Amino acid sequence: xxxxxxxxxxxxxxxxxxxxxxxxxxxxxxxxxxxxxxxxxxxxxxxxxxxxxxxxxxxxxxxxxxxxxxxxxxxxxxxxxxxxxxxxxxxxxxxxxxxxxxxxxxxxxxxxxxxxxxxxxxxxxxxxxxxxxxxxxxxxxxxxxxxxxxxxxxxxxxxxxxxxxxxxxxxxxxxxxxxxxxxxxxxxxxxxxxxxxxxxxxxxxxxxxxxxxxxxxxxxxxxxxxxxxxxxxxxxxxxxxxxxxxxxxxxxxxxxxxxxxxxxxxxxxxxxxxxxxxxxxxxxxxxxxxxxxxxxxxxxxxxxxxxxxxxxxxxxxxxxxxxxxxxxxxxxxxxxxxxxxxxxxxxxxxxxxxxxxxxxxxxxxxxxxxxxxxxxxxxxxxxxxxxxxxxxxxxx
Length: 396
Fold this sequence. Notes:
This protein has helices at about 1-15, 20-30, 35-40, 45-50, 55-65; strands spanning about 75-80, 125-130, 130-135, 145-150, 155, 170-175, 180-185, 195-200, 205-215, 230, 235-240, 245, 260, 270-275, 280-285, 295-305, 310-315, 335-340, 350-355, 355-360, 365-370, 380-385. By secondary structure, it is mostly beta strands. A 4-stranded antiparallel sheet has the order 2-3-4-5, with no helix packed on it. A hairpin with a 2-residue loop joins β19 and β20. It holds the Pfam family F-box.
């Protein structure tokens, strides 16, 4: 009898919150992990109203920014997993390279809630913006695009683009409740200095095609380096001329794509990428030699308008590794390539090294293995927004 009464009391406590004022219930909910908060919207109509109020979102974001010593949760996601025959079956559902955030710790974090996310053809992550991901079913001949929030498993499908293009450079911007997807061919070999640029806007629900100026006739976009949104513009690494191609979709005077200089003393043509760390635009490269000393170098863009770069780090690998590296990889004849910059820490970069994903502290020269049996050269630093970005429901 006592056990029955206790269960009845527990059920009453869980269900009856009428004696709790709104302000106190709000204070309690504010202290829950954001992933749980969205689940608790289904508890009752009252909880749904409280959590859905924009005031609640502002309070939650303010508390996160002021009370936590660390920055917004983030993780490294695998962008592409290629064919099954070269990827172990245990990695097919794995999208996460790091495990430091509790929001990613739950089993099954994946993109399997998206349509056509099959085991034999995992969905591709193309870009991220403000806590959302832009995904596609294929790498070439892209036509089925999805925008999703993997934290709350919300997604929408975009209308198919108007023209089939084998390989495209894609950009994604989400701001103030609206989003845009921009795409154009990754290469141009024709005699004309113009190209076809396609833009999808959530405000119109349609793809808009325009002919824009191209700064060079024979450009080639480096697609294994993610697009970077910085200072209002999208940035892609250009391979053939060793430049950055930029595009500002909201500049009324913008007549098309533009070129931006890379550091004058850069050396690597292949092993390089762009990124943003703590709001600073950076360029990261490893000299592309397979034997002998290799350099790791990181520049920061000190003046965007003047395109002035400042070298932050230059490290020779031959004298930088600690002894525990030899426990899992031979010291000589190794291959190394840059993968990502830490979005919150200037000193930490991520490298592919001997079949492993490693983090490397540029200040302490300490190397740590964070993922073994690493089969992808494609990583994306995915940062949560303080309050999950909801995707406007499509009207098209």
